[in-house]
Automatic annotation (TrEMBL):
Protein name, per record: Homogentisate phytyltransferase
A single cellular component GO annotation: membrane
Recorded topology in the membrane: Multi-pass membrane protein
Top EC category: transferase
Membrane-crossing residue ranges in chain numbering: 32-50, 70-90, 117-136, 200-218, 239-258
Entry's Gene Ontology molecular function annotations: homogentisate phytyltransferase activity
Family to which the UniProt record says this protein belongs: Belongs to the UbiA prenyltransferase family.
Pfam families the record matches: UbiA
Length: 323
């Protein structure tokens, strides 16, 4: 029996719009969409706080200018995001059929030609929207992100084959390209002199630490399901614990030295986050063979760290707006 006979027919947008949209939502990798959306919103919020301090009315024109620029930037970044994650799924389909069979290419909801078409549309849309914005900063951010995403997934480089280089690609995009590029773009769109203030460097460093922790936890999560030895799991877990503890503690100590930010708000929120992080870390069940229902699984803990990462893009702009 042929492979096509065993596989269900691919979804068609016209014939099955709701199932197709559900599959497309999975294809776009919702957690990355959430991260991209919050980062764009947060970075615009920080730039807005610098342009319109609390208590000063920005005026209708400036509000409209900010909202329209935010909307265009968000669409360009979402298209970039879909291109990167979609390309990765196309290249990883054989592995995903074993490890992530719910993804639309692996499950047969999307055919390979459909996926390639979606990735092509996303890439074209990202470039077009960046050009329409007439912002060199957004064009550069989109181009760098697309180039790194391509080098990560596609031959001949296919950097994801090498753990260190693959992780470096993710850290570079999340930590530097997005934070620095989008903030410079937002500043220029809101009439500010484009430069990188200290609070953005701090945010970029925090994102870099969280991205490293997430990369390590992904290894821990996958390793736990593949009978990774308990000693290795414990070492990875401890490294993540120390990384985030030092990150939070450093932020609390440095808060008063970061210009144009509400130090008290930053200290209190990160103190609460650190306490909750410590509490949940004690609940993690590192032994995947233990059936104790009260423990937190590695997968749940991994998702929890993602949420802490997302929250940073709410805490930082709020601290700037409250300054």
């Amino acid at each position: 029996m042929t492979k096509s006979a065993l596989s269900p027919p691919s979804l068609n947008l016209i014939q099955s719009p709701i199932p197709w949209l559900r599959a497309f939502w999975k294809f776009s990798r919702p957690h990355t969409i959430a991260g991209t959306s919050l980062s764009v919103l947060g970075l615009f919020g920080i730039a807005w706080a610098a342009r319109h301090p609390l208590g000063l009315s920005p005026g209708t024109f400036h509000v409209w200018q900010g909202v329209s620029s935010l909307w265009l930037t968000w669409l360009a970044c979402i298209c970039t995001n879909i291109y990167i994650v979609g390309l990765n799924q196309i290249e990883d389909v054989a592995v995903d059929r074993l490890n992530k069979p719910y993804l639309p290419i692996a499950s047969g909801e999307f055919s390979a030609p459909q996926a390639r078409m979606l990735v092509g549309i996303a890439c074209s849309g990202a470039i077009l929207l960046a050009v329409v914005s007439q912002s060199l900063y957004l064009v550069a951010t989109v181009w760098f992100s697309l180039a790194i995403g391509t080098a990560y997934s596609l031959p001949p480089l296919q950097l994801k084959r090498f753990p260190l280089l693959g992780s470096g690609c993710k850290l570079l995009v999340r930590g530097a390209v997005v934070n620095l590029g989008i903030f410079l773009h937002a500043s220029s769109q809101l009439g500010l002199m484009p430069h990188i203030p200290g609070r953005i460097w701090v945010l970029a460093l925090v994102v870099l630490v969280f991205s490293s922790a997430i990369a390590l936890l992904k290894k821990l999560r996958d390793g736990a399901s593949k009978s990774m030895d308990s000693l290795s799991i414990a070492k990875v877990f401890k490294l993540v614990w120390w990384l985030l503890t030092i990150c939070y503690s450093g932020l609390i100590i440095a808060a008063r030295f970061i210009p144009a930010i509400n130090a008290e708000f930053l200290m209190v929120t990160h103190g609460l986050a650190l306490g909750y992080f410590w509490y949940l870390s004690r609940q993690v069940q590192l032994d995947s063979n233990n059936t104790d229902a009260t423990g937190l699984s590695c997968k749940d803990y991994y998702q929890f760290i993602w949420k802490l990462f997302f929250i940073e893009y709410l805490i930082f702009p709020t601290a700037c707006l409250l300054h």
